[in-house]
């Protein structure tokens, strides 16, 4: 990969084959600044911002051409050239690819490659475009012009199909033609790079949407009197969603099943595994499994699908009876849900029988605890991103006790449903002093008679 340097270094005439044009660094500061502001091309990035790119900016230096050709006589084949602003186009000459790699710094804008130059380690009977392919691998961010004989137009066209921006005939070169070809090649490469970045941005957005649909599905609660709300906030360091996931379904017998989980680690692999576990949980739940049997089967899914034996997932499952007054609770290394009822302060459900996270212990068991909910209640399930943020500038964490006190206060202030979740997540972020480093997923089920 080319190594960025802070400013154009002078290339000796013996090294480049030609004397160097005047450097902007040698001009008065006032003139140099004027040139920079007037000629700098700006390229939109995937976020819609404009940024100056080293590979396509001609603002701070003249255009620089790297000529790669084997000329035993030492006479340059490139005529004198001027860019669009009338500045001399610099030329560096390399007689082989080893020397080209040394001269190929980030201030080179275009490469003029003689296709007759042999590629390293190849004979004349090998691929006739091998040298071009080698240069394209060596300089993927640079514009490339292929140089060939006038009777070999087919080879030049094939060079463009392989990846060159254009081709020229050796015996038809003149300064005006070559200057225009260099400017065209640089602009075309810049356009191709911008198009590629936009395509990559669209692909990432599509991946995000697919992962979001898989991780954060629409709950299946038709016929249930329970109200549902959810909130998700990704951590600041990732473009993709992390491994947090949740789901809620109602089975034909009227039982409402809720689940929230967290795959360790961050990134697309963990998110994909979270999607698989979420879909498996829904399928197994609709098939009638619950409690220890369901979690044991999910552990088998995780063990078969994870990329590394050290990957695990925490999980909390709740099955609420059709009358809404009691529920079964299973915890697999996950924080216990928060229960709030009228006249009773919000409290954590029991977690003494918390089983291990999925994927840690073969043959593990996850006891199902019976809990009483009452006639009217709110049940909040969450991932550890909600409780692991810092409190102020110190190293103290919010923790479950801090979260419980926070939610008690917010409920006392009259917050319910979506408003409660929004306020809780925002306050946790504010207490942390900025964006949280971990994903946060929270879901809330309310029963109001």
Helix/strand/pairing class, anyone?
Answer: alpha+beta
Q: DSSP strand (E) fraction?
A: 15-25%
- Report the end-to-end length measured between terminal Cα atoms: 67 Å
Are there runs of 5+ residues with pLDDT below 50, and where? 1-60
State mean pLDDT (0 to 100 scale). Answer: 81
Strand adjacency order, main sheet: 4-3-5-6-7
How would a textbook summarize the main sheet? 5 strands, parallel
Topology order in helix (H) and strand (E) letters? HHEEEEHEHEHEHEEEHHEEEEEEHHE
Number of helices: 10
Describe this structure in words.
The protein has a 5-stranded parallel β-sheet. A 5-stranded antiparallel β-sheet has the order 8-17-16-13-14, with helices on one face. It is 33% helix and 21% strand. The longest helix has 41 residues, at 175-215. The relative contact order is 0.09. Residues 1-60 have low confidence and may be disordered. The protein has helices at 13-16, 29-39, 97-103, 130-138, 153-162, 175-215, 268-286, 291-305, 399-412, 417-432, and strands spanning 43-44, 50-51, 64-68, 90-94, 110-114, 143-148, 166-169, 227-233, 244-250, 256-263, 313-320, 326-332, 338-341, 344-348, 369-372, 377-382, 440-447. It is built from 10 helices and 17 strands. It has 449 residues and is an alpha+beta fold. Strand 13 (338-341) and strand 14 (344-348) form a beta hairpin.
Secondary structure elements and pairings:
Layout: H1 13-16, H2 29-39, E1 43-44, E2 50-51, E3 64-68, E4 90-94, H3 97-103, E5 110-114, H4 130-138, E6 143-148, H5 153-162, E7 166-169, H6 175-215, E8 227-233, E9 244-250, E10 256-263, H7 268-286, H8 291-305, E11 313-320, E12 326-332, E13 338-341, E14 344-348, E15 369-372, E16 377-382, H9 399-412, H10 417-432, E17 440-447
Parallel strand pairs: 3-4, 3-5, 5-6, 6-7
Antiparallel strand pairs: 1-2, 8-17, 9-10, 10-11, 11-12, 12-15, 13-14, 13-16, 16-17
Helix pairs in contact: 7-8, 9-10
């Amino acid at each position: 990969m080319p190594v960025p340097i802070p400013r154009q270094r002078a290339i000796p005439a013996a090294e480049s084959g030609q004397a160097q044009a005047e450097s902007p660094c040698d001009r008065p500061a006032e003139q140099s600044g004027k040139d920079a502001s007037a000629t700098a091309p700006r390229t939109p990035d995937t976020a819609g911002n404009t940024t100056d790119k080293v590979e396509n900016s001609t603002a701070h230096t003249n255009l620089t051409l790297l000529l790669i050709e084997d000329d035993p006589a030492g006479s340059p084949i490139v005529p004198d050239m001027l860019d669009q602003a009338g500045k001399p186009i610099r030329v560096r000459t390399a007689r082989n690819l080893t020397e080209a790699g040394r001269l190929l710094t980030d201030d080179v804008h275009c490469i003029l490659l003689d296709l007759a130059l042999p590629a390293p380690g190849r004979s004349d009977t090998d691929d006739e475009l091998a040298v071009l392919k080698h240069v394209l691998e060596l300089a993927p961010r640079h514009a490339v012009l292929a140089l060939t004989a006038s009777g070999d137009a087919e080879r030049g066209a094939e060079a463009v199909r392989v990846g060159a921006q254009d081709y020229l005939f050796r015996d038809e070169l003149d300064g005006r033609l070559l200057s225009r070809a260099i400017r065209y090649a640089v602009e075309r490469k810049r356009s191709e790079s911008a198009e590629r970045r936009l395509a990559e941005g669209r692909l990432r957005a599509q991946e995000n949407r697919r992962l979001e649909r898989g991780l954060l599905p629409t709950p299946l609660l038709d016929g249930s009197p329970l109200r549902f709300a959810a909130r998700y906030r990704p951590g600041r360091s990732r473009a993709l969603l992390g491994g947090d996931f949740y789901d809620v379904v109602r089975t034909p017998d009227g039982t409402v099943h809720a689940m929230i989980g967290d795959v360790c680690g961050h990134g697309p692999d963990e998110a994909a595994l979270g999607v698989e576990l979420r879909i498996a949980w829904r399928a197994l739940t609709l098939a009638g499994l619950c409690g220890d049997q369901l979690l044991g089967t999910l552990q088998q899914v995780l063990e078969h699908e994870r990329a590394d034996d050290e990957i695990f997932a925490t999980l909390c499952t709740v099955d609420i009876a059709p009358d809404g007054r009691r529920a079964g609770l299973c915890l697999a290394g996950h924080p216990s849900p928060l229960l709030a009822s009228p006249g009773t302060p919000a409290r954590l459900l029991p977690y003494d029988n918390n089983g291990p996270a999925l994927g840690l212990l073969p043959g593990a068991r996850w006891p199902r605890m019976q809990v009483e909910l009452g006639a009217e209640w709110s049940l909040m399930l969450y991932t550890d991103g909600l409780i692991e943020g810092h409190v102020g500038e110190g190293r103290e964490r919010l923790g479950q006790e801090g979260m419980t006190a926070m939610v008690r206060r917010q409920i006392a202030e009259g917050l319910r449903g979506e408003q409660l979740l929004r306020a809780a997540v925002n306050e946790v972020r504010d207490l942390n002093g900025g964006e949280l480093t971990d994903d946060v997923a929270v879901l809330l089920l309310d029963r109001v008679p």
